[in-house]
Design goal:
The chain has 13 helices and no strands. By secondary structure, it is an all-alpha fold.
């Protein structure tokens, strides 16, 4: 059944999802896993739409498609982040692997032996791929081709460029040990600079998070309460007919009701939380996708502070303005 559903998805999209699953190191049957997830998402979205319709009387179609899209995006971003996390781990242990390979070469080992003996258990997935290179070499494949094929298993330009440099040095007959030592040192310096940059931008992250998560909901809470006060007070104002004729102004209901302002505030807060989370991910980690994890935190935080602000203001000033 899942094979029929997968045929409805464009081939290009299917292959991209399969690639994401492979890069995230998922040891599953990719077609079956994706098909089962699509079927499960369909029924879960239908259940959510019926539940929301039963309590809030919303449109079932909109609720279904909204839930289905959210589940699909959650699937994609989850495994995409996992693939990036795997690549980051490999980049972190890569300098140690290169340094160990250089030490093995200095000890008199051949290049393929030095590479294989640099695979340590603490290197995790990188160690697995290095052992895979050893199997390919044993079957007669060129070491350079095997090393470049290994880089395709990770979403890392840094790993690809590093191994391309090593393969180029290997084929040109240069001093490979010095090349490996210098490359490892450069990678460590780059990691140190990345950490220093993240420390420097921490204040920007805190400021943006505070502005979106605290400042915005408090201001929206105050303004929405003020609109409610104005709407109620204007509805109670009654001018005599003679005064209404002589004065060039009229008192009537506000053209923007308080309910619209409340809805506008909620939509604005949710939108700002989503966009702000992407900005936080871009500033903190260099990619917008890393901000996905901040979205539920900011949305819940902003809406909670917004309604808490309205409740506290109503509790304190409700009797004064007759809104209690």
């Amino acid at each position: 059944m899942y094979q029929i559903i997968l045929r409805l998805i464009p081939k290009k999209i299917r292959n991209h999802v399969y690639e994401i699953l492979a890069l995230s190191r998922m040891r599953v049957h990719k077609e079956r896993f994706l098909g089962v997830y699509l079927i499960t998402s369909f029924f879960v979205s239908l259940a959510i739409a019926l539940f929301v319709f039963g309590f809030f009387h919303t449109n079932i179609t909109i609720g279904f498609f909204s839930s289905f899209i959210i589940l699909l995006l959650g699937f994609y971003f989850t495994f995409s982040l996992k693939a990036d996390a795997t690549a980051k781990f490999v980049e972190r242990v890569l300098p140690d692997a290169l340094q160990l390979m250089s030490s093995n070469l200095r000890a008199g080992l051949t290049t393929d032996k030095a590479l294989l003996l640099s695979a340590r258990p603490e290197f995790g997935v990188l160690s697995e791929e290095i052992n895979g290179i050893g199997k390919k070499i044993a079957l007669g494949e060129d070491i350079g081709v095997a090393m470049m094929d290994m880089t395709k298993q990770f979403r890392s330009d840094k790993l690809r460029k590093t191994f391309y440099l090593v393969v180029t040095g290997l084929r040109s007959g240069g001093e490979l040990t010095d090349l490996l030592d210098q490359t490892a040192e450069n990678l460590r310096q780059e990691q140190f600079l990345d950490e220093k940059i993240r420390t420097n931008v921490l204040m920007y992250v805190i400021f943006i998070f505070s502005a979106i998560g605290v400042g915005a909901p408090i201001l929206f809470g105050l303004s929405s309460f003020l609109v409610g006060v104005i709407e109620k007070n204007l509805s109670l104002v009654e001018l005599p007919d003679t005064a209404a004729i002589s004065l060039p102004i009229t008192f009537s209901e506000t053209p923007v009701p308080a309910s619209f302002v409340l809805l506008f505030a909620i939509v604005s807060l949710v939108t700002t939380s989503i966009l702000g989370s992407l900005v936080l991910g871009l500033i903190a980690k260099g990619k917008e996708i890393y901000g996905i994890k901040f979205i539920p935190i900011l949305v819940i935080m902003t809406l909670s502070i917004f309604f808490l602000t309205r409740f506290l203001i109503g509790l304190v000033l409700g009797d004064l303005f007759g809104l209690s």
